[in-house]
Amino acid sequence: MDLIKKTNFNFLGNRMRGYLFSFIVIAAGVVVFLGRGPMNNFGVDFIGGDILHITLGTSTDVADIRATLAGSGAGEVTVQSLGTAGREFIIKSKPDTSALLRAALEKAYGAQGFEVVGSSTVAPAMSGTLRKKSIRAFIFGVIGILLYLSFRFEFRFAVTAVVALIHDILFTAAVLAFFGRQIDASVIAGFLTIVGYSVNDKVVIFDRIRENLKNSRSSDYLALFNQSINDVLGRTLLTGVAVMAVLLCLFLMGGEPLHSLSLCLLSGFIVGTYSSIFVATALLLDWHRVSPHRFKL
Amino acid sequence: MRNRQTIGMLLIAAGIGMCVWAIYPPGEKIKRGLDLQGGVHVVLEVQKATDEAHTLTDLTDRALEVIRNRVDALRVSEPIIQREGDNFIIVDLPGAKDPEKALEIIGKTALLEFRLVKDDTSGDTSGYEFLPTRERDERGILRDGPPLLVKKEPELTGAGLRDAYVGYDAAKPVVNLELNREGARIFDEVTGRNVGRRLAIVLDGVVKSAPVIRTRIPDGKAQISGHFTVEEAKELALVLRAGALPAEVKLAYKEVVGPTLGKSYVEAGLRASLIGGAIVFAMMAVYYLWFGLLADFAMAFNILILIAVFSVIKGVFTLPGIAGIALAAGMAVDANILIFERMREEKRAGKSVRGIVDAGYHRAWSAIIDSNITTVIAGFALFMFGEGPIKGFGLTLCIGNIANLITAVFVTKVIVDWVLSNWRVETIRI
C-alpha cells in the first residue's frame, strides 16, 4: 500500500500563520498558568507537599470534600476527583498537613467511611533538589544537541532546532494548563520524551535539506526547503500515525495514572511534528531572509 | 558472502537467546515498581546535631544500621535500603502489607538498651520478659535465636553511650565502649552488683548480644570480647553506635501505594499498551507487506533487548515505564519507515532489486544515525545530571535508541541480504 504519492504542498508559504498560531497558544498558556498559581500548576514533587489518595464508602463530590477540609487547619488544598462514581479523590495540601486532613475526614465520614489507598509526602528541600537537577540535566542536554547538530549540519540548523524544542515544551505546558493538569515528575519525563522525538523529526527534514542542497545549485531556499519537506512527508505521516496510535490507546484506555502523561505526549508529539516545519525550517528560511547566508553542508 | 550472511543470522538467533535468558523467568527477573504492586518508598534525610563532631557520612551509616535493623523485623521480601549522597537514605519496601505501619516503625527514634539477663528461667520471673534474638548466620541470612529472658527495666539506654568501635586484644577482635559521665556512673554501679551475670544489648526490642559481666567497670570504658570475627565485631559496634545516634532523621520524601490502588490501573495501563503496540504491528504489515513484518520483527527484538537490559541492570518497571515501552515500539518503526520510504523512491526511479535495497539502506542511513545520536546525547545528559526518575528515563532513552539502531538497521539488513541471496527475488513489492 502506498497512500502518499509525490506531493508538492507550499508549507513554508504559510509560515507567518504558523508563527501567529504558536504565539497565541503559548501566550494564552502563560495567562492561564499565571492565573492558577503554583499549587495548581505543579505536582508536590516540585513544590513540596502532601498527597492523600482516598476512596469513600459513600459517593460525594469535590465541593463537598473541599467544604469538609476547609476547617481542618491545613490551609490551601486542591481536590481532584477520579472516575465517575464520586468515590475516589486525590487531595493535595501543604507539607506536613496530611494528619490534619485525615482527622477532618474521619470526623466527617467516620473512621470506617473512607480508606487511604495511597499517600505521598515531599519535603520542600527534596523538591528543590529535584527541580534544580532537572533543569541542569535539561540544559546540558540542549548544549549537547546544539554541539552535535552544529558539527553535523551548521550552526543555524542547531539553533533553530533548539528554538523549536523550547517552543514544543512551552506549547505542551500551555495545553496541560488548558486541561487543568499539573506538572509533576511524570510530566517532566513526558517533556523529555517530546524533546527526543521532536529533535528526531527535525533531523529527518534537515537531513533531506542537506541532501537536496548538495544536489542543487539553486539558492531559492523557499522552494528547496518546501521540496525537502514534501520528500519526507510520507515518513512524517506514517511515523506520526504509528506513534499517535499508541498514544491514543494510552490516553483513552490507560486509566487515570497515565492520563496526564499521555495527554502531555499526545499534544507534544503533534506539536513536535508541526514545529519541524513551521518553527525550525521556517526560522531557518527567515534567518536567511534577514541575514543572507550561503548554506555549505 | 553466503557465509557472512549465515553468521549474521546465527548472531541474531544468539542475541534473541541471550535476551530471553536474561528475562526468564519473568516473575523473578523483572522487578515491579511500587505502583505495580503497592508498598512504600521513603527518602530520609539525616541532619547533624549542632555540636556534633562526627562526619555526616558516619552519622548516615549509623542511621542506615538502625533502619536496616527495623526493616529486617518487618520481613518484607525484597527491601532496598541504600545511601544516596552524603546524608540521604532510600528505603523501598515493595509489597509491604501495611504500608502506614511500616512507615511508623521506620520513622521512630532508635532505642538501644542494656538489660540484665536471667538465665535461670525457672522460679520467679515477674519483672522479666522474653525478647527475641536475631542474628545473621555465616551466609548473611537472618535467623531467630532462642528468646532470652531479660529484665523489663533497662539499666542504661543509648543516651549514656558516647562511642563504640572495634579494637584488638591479644590479636582477637573486641568491641570497645565509651560511656559518657552519667553512663559511666550507672555502669559502675550495675556492673559492680552483677558480676557473673549477662547484660543484654537490645536494639529496638531485639537482643543483639548478651555478654557476661566479668568485672566491675568503674571508668566508663568497657570491652566486649568473645569469639567474634572481625565482621561480627564491626556489626555489633555499629549497632551500639546506632543506638547512640546523635542525629536527627527527617522524612524528605514518602510515597505509599496501597495494594488495592495498583491492580485496576495496572490492568488498564497494560491493556492500553498492548493494544497500542498491536495497532502499530498490524499497520506496518498492511502498509509495507513483507517488509512490514520484518520491521515488526525488529520492533519486537528492540523491546526484548530493552526489557533484557533492564532486568540485567536490575531496573524497576513502573506503569509510566510500561507506557514508555509501548511508545518506544511506535518510535522504533521510524528507522524502518525511513528505509522503506527511501526504497519506494528508488523503486520509482526504476532500479533493480539489489539496487533498491542497497540504495534504500544507504541513503536513509545519515538521517537515522543523526537522529539516533542526538536522542542518545539528550538521554545521556539526563542520565548523568538528572536524579531519580529522570536519571532512569535518560538511561531507557539511551538503551532504546542504541537497540533501535541495531535491530532496525543491521538486523533487518542481514535478513534481507540472506533472503536475496538464498531465493530468486524478481521484483520487490513495497
Short structural summary:
The complex is a heterodimer of chains A (297) and B (430). Chain A has helices at 15-36, 38-41, 44-47, 62-70, 98-109, 124-152, 155-178, 185-214, 221-231, 233-253, 259-290, and strands spanning 49-56, 77-82, 88-93, 114-122.
CATH class assignment of the largest domain in chain B: Alpha Beta
Distance between the termini of chain B: 25 Å
Mean pLDDT, all residues of chain A: 87
Low-confidence residue ranges of chain A: none
| Sheet with most strands of chain A | 4 strands, antiparallel
Shape label of chain B: elongated
CATH domain class of the largest domain in chain A: Mainly Alpha
Global morphology of chain A = elongated
Using only C-alpha atoms, the radius of gyration of chain A works out to 24 Å
CATH architecture of the largest domain in chain A: Up-down Bundle
> Helical proportion of chain B?
40-55%
Q: Tell me the quaternary state.
A: heterodimer
CATH fold-level label of the largest domain in chain B:
Gyrase A, domain 2
Beta-strand residue fraction of chain A: 5-15%
Radius of gyration of chain B: 31 Å
For the largest interface in this structure, which chains are involved and how many residues does each contribute? A-B, 75 and 74 residues
Number of helices of chain B: 11
Q: Walk across the major sheet of chain B and give the strand order.
A: 3-4-2-14
CATH domain fold name of the largest domain in chain A: Multidrug efflux transporter AcrB transmembrane fold
Structural class of chain A: alpha+beta
SSE layout:
The complex is a heterodimer of chains A (297) and B (430).
Chain A: H1 15-36, H2 38-41, H3 44-47, E1 49-56, H4 62-70, E2 77-82, E3 88-93, H5 98-109, E4 114-122, H6 124-152, H7 155-178, H8 185-214, H9 221-231, H10 233-253, H11 259-290
Antiparallel strand pairs in A: 1-3, 1-4, 2-3
Helix pairs in contact in A: 1-7, 6-7, 7-8, 7-11, 8-9, 8-11, 10-11
Chain B: H1 2-23, H2 26-29, E1 31-32, H3 34-37, E2 39-48, H4 56-74, E3 80-84, E4 88-94, H5 99-107, E5 112-116, E6 128-136, E7 142-151, E8 156-157, E9 161-169, E10 172-179, H6 181-193, E11 199-203, E12 206-209, E13 221-224, H7 230-243, E14 247-257, H8 259-312, E15 316-317, H9 319-348, H10 353-385, H11 389-422
Parallel strand pairs in B: 1-15
Antiparallel strand pairs in B: 2-4, 2-14, 3-4, 5-8, 5-11, 6-7, 9-10, 10-13, 11-12
